Amino acid sequence: MCVCLHQTENAIAFQKKKVENNSHNMNIPYQKLHSQWPLLILWCSIIATMFQHVSTVSLPTNETVPAVIVFGDSIVDPGNNNYITTLVKCNFSPYGRDFAEGNHPTGRFSDGLVPSDIIAAKFGVKKLLPAYLDPNLELQDLLTGVSFASGGAGFDPLTAELVSVMSLSDQLDMFKAYIKKISRMVGGNRTAIIVSKSIYIVCVGSDDIANTYSQSPIRSAEYDIPSYTDLMASEALNFLQELYGLGARRIGVFGLPAIGCVPSQRTLGGSLDRACLNSSNQAAMLFNSKLLSQMDALGKMFSDSRLVYLDSYNGLLNMIQNPAKYGFEVTTKGCCGTGEIEVSILCNRYSINTCTNSSSYIFWDSYHPTQNAYNVLSSLVLDDKIKDFF
């Protein structure tokens, strides 16, 4: 019961936030929520169900994490793209079908939670990591962390520009504004502690390979894969150096997943059997090796930092190659529509043949995993690495 009452605060916060479903707005006064205990009991049940598969991990003795702060793309965007002018959105059904009590499209590119939420829960900070651009954020939301991620972004600045989303540079600018904002609210000393002791997660780069390089002639005409991954690695290095310069010390960076095995890449790769696209997987592995090398060098340069490489490539590939081991059945297509090409605006309430059992699918749409798959992948990637952040 104590756990349930503690989680009620998160339920209240969630109820107070704007959950976009086209023009639908759900705002409930705080005082009214406190007076409606039956509603809170219901929310306890909902929250318990929602997070029953999110495994928490033990932090080292005497270590605390005040906030989780995230940068990246659609994998960790909890809804920032709702508030900018871009086609890269998903604040409509069937997205969010399994979020909370169901049918709440929040702007997360999944049927439910995304890794930014799951990671915040693993570190014991909070159950939902909100979008920084959400106009309904309150002080406690900010102090415990936000996601600056924007679906469609990449290490390559051109990636975000092509689809009119927020680049990593834009996200860093928002982080600078965030620091100033919380400093005005709680003072410089507390802000410095929050900034230095928070966990930072960077998850970006898949769109560089899958879209900017593979689907656009701009970069492929100028670069081959080795030189393009050099460009990506250089941008990654610049980003991490600037993030460190702003005070971040505990930084985890996701390597690229086996991007050639996502359903859209299987479809666009052209083979009749829709096998994994080997060229994209090779590019991902090449970049990952360069990223790991850059991070090792930075770790030696910045001895007071903890730079943690998070291997999502082998984690996702293991799930795809051994689905039954993790409780999955379908690996080559997403749940939404045909599952072979639908993503973002192509995955909508009119998509026919959308599956009814998303928990048995690794992918929700043709590009993004399901909530269930994100839970499994986050554990495979992160659980054994928690100690490395401290």
Quick synopsis:
Belongs to the 'GDSL' lipolytic enzyme family. By secondary structure, this protein is α/β, with parallel strands linked by helices.
* Helicity range: 40-55%
CATH superfamily of the largest domain: SGNH hydrolase
The CATH class label of the largest domain is: Alpha Beta
Mind describing the biggest β-sheet? 4 strands, parallel
Radius of gyration: 20 Å
- Count of strand segments: 6
Strand line-up in the sheet with most strands? 1-2-3-4
In the CATH hierarchy, the architecture of the largest domain is: 3-Layer(aba) Sandwich
CATH topology of the largest domain: Rossmann fold
Strand content: 5-15%
Which series of helices and strands comes N to C? HHHEHHHHHEHHHEHHEHEEH
Number of helices: 15
- Are there runs of 5+ residues with pLDDT below 50, and where? 1-53
Shape: globular
Give the termini distance in whole angstroms. 31 Å
Which secondary-structure class do the elements indicate?
Answer: alpha/beta
Question: Domains counted in the coordinates: how many?
Answer: 2
Mean pLDDT: 88
Organism: Psophocarpus tetragonolobus (Winged bean)
Protein name: GDSL esterase/lipase EXL3
Family: Belongs to the 'GDSL' lipolytic enzyme family.
GO cellular component, one term: extracellular region
